[in-house]
Amino acid sequence: MTRPTAPGASLRDLARAHGVSTEYVTDRGARVTVAADTLVAVLAACGVDASTPDAARRALAARRAADADRLLPPCVVVRAGSAAGLRLAPGAEARVALEGGGESGTEDPLPPGAHVLHAVAGRRRASAPLLAVPERFPVPERRGWGFLVQLYSVLSRRSWGMGDLADLAELASWSGRALGAGFVQLGPLHAVEPGPLPDPSPYRPSSRRFADPMHVRVEEVPEYRYLDREARRAVDSCAARARALNERVLSGGTLIDREAVRALKFEALRHVYRVPAPPGRRAALEAFTAREGGDLTDFATWSALAEAHGGAWRSWPEGLRDPRSPRVAGARGELAEAVAFHRWLAWITDEQLAAAQRAAKDAGMDIGLVHDLAVGVAPEGADAWTLQHCLAGGMSVGAPPDDFNPLGQDWGQPPWRPDALAAERYRPLAGLLRAGMRHAGALRVDHVMGLFRLWWVPEGRPPSEGTYVRYDAEAMLGVLLLEAHRAGVAVIGEDLGTVERGVREELAARGVLGTSVQRFEYLGGSEGRHGPLPPRQWRRNCLATLTTHDLPTTAAWLSGEHVDLRARLGLLTRPEPEEKAQAAAERDGWLAELRRQGLLPDADGELVALHRFLTRTPSTLLGVWLPDATGDRRPQNLPGTADVHPNWRLPVADGHGRPVPLEDLPGHPHVQAVARVFADGEPHGTKTEERDVRPGP
Question: Edge-to-edge, what's the strand order for the sheet holding 514-517?
Fold first, then answer.
């Protein structure tokens, strides 16, 4: 095996100047030097030629000269209410163009906003984004609990083959009113690629800026009521086929088929779209279109082009690959009706998202909906087409090798280019954050560590041959702070796995809630594992839960069935007896902790006792994975598999694998038992500061 070539001094300095790590520390503390060819590939994706030693030296000299000549930093972040406080070059003058209009001096207190700083020194001129941001994120005023769900899996008897936004409104209304739940946390509802789904994961969307219309309840669109006879027959035919599909899913006869559901809904919605809208509805659509502006036009254009040419835009005719090309402008005119249809779809989806959040708040929920922002997008999707100038071509986001994934991970999603994002004044990031927060009380940010750095993997290479690329964390956090302040929402960061030292502390200091999962909460950390972490030592500022969509359900973890499943699928990395022994020891350690806490024996069983354990932690938010509440033993997703397990296609079911429709949740004995834990413990109205708990970050 050939050893990777170590980088020379110029290449190392050039990489560091662009935020590219030349070495990194593994989860075990080992220091690894990044190979020279990896650095060259990553720099090339950032528009920097380092292909030869001479090229690297020239690029380094050019970078140093540009830095020396720079009037302003790439981005300035200050606390709202304070002045810009810049140290300018001799003879330079600066002014601030306020976001809301008007100007301000650099010594004047700044209102919250995304302002622009302009500087002049002789003939030199420069501009940079100036973010005036609050000190901290909004945080929940009271402790709360709620269900964690993948919406597609929560079917009612009125669904069209998968859970939809009307089902979400019902789930929120029931759990808020009847159970005292304070929120419902969702998986991503982002738009997916049209046609066959190469990857059914909601975490690899086409666009993070718009939700997918397949989540719409067709009958809830107001124009549905005014279909003429012929259109009504056509829509009723779609509904009948969808109901038959729904019945097969709920009877356990088939898996959720989102492609089929989407096709049926789009067929029906095309008829609903043709119903003339009254003046008020037309005005509402026009207002939505004006609010979303160019982002909506780009998304609708891509959607129309994808219907005509397929979802892989890199394979489109050359003139259509650039969203700003004259040919795209011409195609937009030729496909005007299709573009208008996709604008309308985005609008009605937004309306039903708003209705679901209203239902949650009307039910007394403090937070309501918690939307989920995926870490990236599919490389052939709408956002990758529209924002290609801000994304690193030929690169994929992933993770380095660690104990859980010894080969590393490649998520198949292009990362932001730090320089391009700054050049765009972080507006693309702000836009997708704003969209995720619009109809929510909180936003979960998947892999929140990506605000600080991401692992870039060059195309065609294994994840182990990647490296970290740093972002301007102050700017990235500033954009997130500003948008959360404007929307009045809390932020939950998914901070599981390998986390750089100091990141969790920085996020906590800003008010970002972390994520604590029972399977990883050990004395000494997940690597040390000196025994389960006692409840009072858990973090306060976090969402605490027993499991996630990527882990075994609690019922399977208690029984050991998760090991059996991986053994059947050939996924074990050690002999089966060893895996079973470790799983049993882990489980028994937790059951012993429950006994020490006086939580066992419990008449309702070990699963309920584990949920009762959560109420003894100081954690601000407590999450119940809905399949845990029904006793489901099947994982929604089994990482590392594609075809051997029905990832992202399972309805919520009971312990025997029988699907449980939404209408049956209130009477389900397991659901009732879990809900009683939170009614008997601390309901969602308990103020955070009133709890007698150990302080923590």
Answer: 490-493, 442-445, 368-373, 183-186, 144-149, 621-625, 542-545, 514-517
Residue 230 exposed, middle or buried by CB count within 10 Å (0-12, 13-18, 19+): exposed
Give the DSSP letter string of 54-103: HHHHHHHHHHHHHHHH-SS-S-EEEETTS-----PPTT-EEEEE-TTSSE
Look-up of token digits 């002789």: 122
- CA–CA gap between residue 36 and residue 51 (Å, rounded): 10
Amino acid at 379: P
Strand blocks (E) in 187-246: 190-191, 207-211
Instruction: Give tens-digit pLDDT for 303-356.
Output: 999 999 999 999 999 999 999 999 999 999 999 999 999 999 999 999 999 999
- CA-derived radius of gyration, the chain: 26
The token pair at 584 is 């049993």
Distance in angstroms between the alpha carbons of the first and the last residue of the chain: 46
User: Is the full-model pTM beyond 0.85?
Assistant: yes
Contact in structure between 611 and 624 (CB atoms under 8 Å) = yes
The residues facing 493 across adjacent strands are 445
Residue matched to tokens 């945080």: 139
For 96, 331, 396, 471, 551, the CA distances from 49, given in Å and listed in that order, are 35, 35, 19, 20, 42
CA distance 168 to 184: 9
Question: In angstroms, rounded to a whole number, what is the distance separating the alpha carbons of residues 110 and 117?
Answer: 12
Helix (H) or strand (E) holding 299: helix 279-309
Contact between residue 546 and residue 614 where contact means Cβ atoms under 8 Å apart? yes
Burial of 259 (0-12, 13-18, 19+ CB in 10 A): middle
Asked if 215 and 165 count as a contact pair (C-beta separation under 8 A), the reply is: yes
**Dist CA 309 CA 329 (whole Å):** 16
User: Residue 2 — pLDDT band, cuts 50, 70, 90?
Assistant: low
What's the sign of the alpha-carbon dihedral 246, 308, 648, 545? Answer: negative
Calpha distance 346→349 (Å, rounded) = 5
DSSP 8-state assignment for residue 24: E
Instruction: Give the containing element (helix H, strand E) for 241.
Output: helix 229-250
651, 677, 648: which is closest to 664 by C-alpha?
651
- Token pair, residue 91, equals 């003879």
Are 447 and 512 contacting, i.e. CB atoms less than 8 angstroms apart?
Answer: no
- The helix/strand/coil state of 253 is coil
pLDDT tops 90 at residue 573: no
Task: Name residue 51's amino acid.
Answer: S
Across 371-383, b (16+ Cβ under 10 Å) vs e yields bbbbbbbbbbbbb
Provide the CA 680 distance to its chain's centre, in angstroms.
32
